[in-house]
Amino acid sequence: MTHSDPQIAAAAGAEPLMADTLSAQIAAWVHGFRLADVPHEVRTRATHLMLDALGIGLASTQWDFSRRTLDGLRELAGPGGDVPVIGQGQNLPLRDAVIQNALQIHGLDYDDTHPSGVIHATTSVLPAVLGLATRLGASGEALLAAYIVGMEVATRLGTAARSGFHQVGFHPTGLIGTFGCTLAAAHLLRLDVPAMVNAQGIALSVASGSLECLEDGAWTKRLHPGWGAAAGITAATLAKQGFIGPARAYEGRFGLYASHLGAELLAKADLGMATAGLGRVWEVMNVAIKPVPACHFTHAFADAASILSPQWGGAPIRRIVARVPPGAMKAVCEPIGKKLRPANAYDAQFSVPYSVATGLRRGRFSLDALDESAYTDPETLAIAALVQCEPDPTADFPRYFGGEVIVELADGRTLRHREPINRGAPGRPIANADIVAKFHENAARAVDRSHADHVRHAVLGIEGGQAAALSRLLGVKARMENA
Question: What positions does the domain MmgE/PrpD N-terminal occupy (predicted)?
Answer without folding.
Answer: 25-263
